[in-house]
Amino acid sequence: DHILIDEHFDITDKFQEYFMELVSLQKRMNDSIAKGIEEALSQVKDVHCNMEADQREKHMMGSKFHNQFEQLQKVEAERNEEVERRLEAEKHRKEADTRFEKQRVQLSIATKDVNRLKQVSEAATYREGKLKIELKDQKAETRELQYQVEAKENRINIMRDTMKELAKYAHFGHEEHPVGDPLTWTPGMVNDFFDEWESMLERNERRREVLKLLSKLVGLDIKKVLGSSVDEVRLFLDETGLRWRELEDAY
Fold first, then answer.
1. pLDDT along the chain (251 residues), means of 10
2. pTM above 0.85?
3. Phi then psi dihedrals of residue 155, to 5 deg
C-alpha cells in the first residue's frame, strides 16, 4: 500500500513530536539523573564533609578525651595526695590528741603534786615558824640558864679565889702540912677552917688580913667586916649570894 503524502507528513510530524517528547523526556531524565547525581554527589560531599567533620570531631573528641583523661588522672592523683595528706593529718591529729591527753594527765598529776608540795611547804613553813619561836624561847631559856651558870661559876670562882687565899693563912694547927689547893677541900675541912679561923681571934693582925682579903673579893665594906664576928661574916656572904654550902656541893 502506498502512504499518502499527507499521511506521511502526519506520521513524520507525530514521529517528530514523539521524538521531541522522547528527547524532552530523555533530557528530563538526564536532567533528573544529573540532578540526582548532583544531589547524590552533594550528599556524598556532605557525607564526606560530615565524615571529615566527624573525623575532626572524633579527633578533637579523642584529644579532648585524652586531655580530660590526663586531667582526670591529674585530679585523681591530686585527690589521692589530698586523701593521703588528710589521712596523715588525721594521724598526726590523733597522735597530738594522745600526747595532749597524756600531757593533761601529767599536768593534773603535776598540779596535784604541786598542791601537795605547797601544802607540805606551808606546813613546813608553819613548823619552821613554830620551831623558830620555840628555838627563840629555848635560846632565851638557854641564855638565862647560861647567865645563871655564869653567875654561879663567878660565885664559885670567887669562892675558889677566896679559899685559895685564905688557905695561905690556915694550916689547921699543922704548919708542916698546909691544906694545899682549896678545890680539894671537903665540907669537913671547910668547917675546920672556920673553927680554926674563929680560934684565931686573938691573932688580930692575921684575922684583919683575912677579913680584908675576903672583903675585897666579895665586895663587902672592910670596916664593917672588921668589926663583925664570924657568924656575921657568914651572913654577909649569904647576902651577896656566896654560900660556903654551894662550894661544898660543887665539890
1. 62 76 79 80 80 80 81 88 91 91 90 87 85 85 83 70 62 47 64 63 58 64 68 67 46 31
2. no
3. -65, -40
